[in-house]
Amino acid sequence: MGHHPEVSTASTLRGRSVAPPVRVGATTVHGLLVDEQTRCEHYHGPLDVIALQFACCGRWYPCHLCHEQLAGHDARRWPTLQRDVEAVLCGVCGSLLRIDAYLEVSACPTCASGFNPGCRLHHDLYFD
Ligand SMILES: [Zn+2]
Ligand SMILES: [Zn+2]
Ligand SMILES: [Zn+2]
Description:
Blueprint: E1 22-24, E2 27-29, E3 50-53, E4 60-61, H1 64-70, E5 86-90, E6 96-98, H2 99-102
Antiparallel strand pairs: 1-2, 3-4, 3-5, 5-6
């Protein structure tokens, strides 16, 4: 009698300011993340499983929009001369790829997870 079931609030993490980083393997990824494989609020299809390290701050984000909304500074692209930097993270297995290696594959060399071919359309946002 008079015992109401508790009303659960589903909107606890709704606020945009709440963006706890996610840890994938040994890498901490910042961003408006929606899952543990670095899909983010902007790109969350089945193949959107990579995160990138940004040359400007050295931090990892799932996409340029996450960086733009959270970093508070302009993104800097990786210069052509630094294509040997391991700046790409596979969100599925946590392994790191060199930029030049990433640009040549359509799936993770370690776990074979497919990468979104649509990302190629905006490689120029990340790499010179
Ligand atoms: Zn930055
Ligand atoms: Zn994003
Ligand atoms: Zn992988």
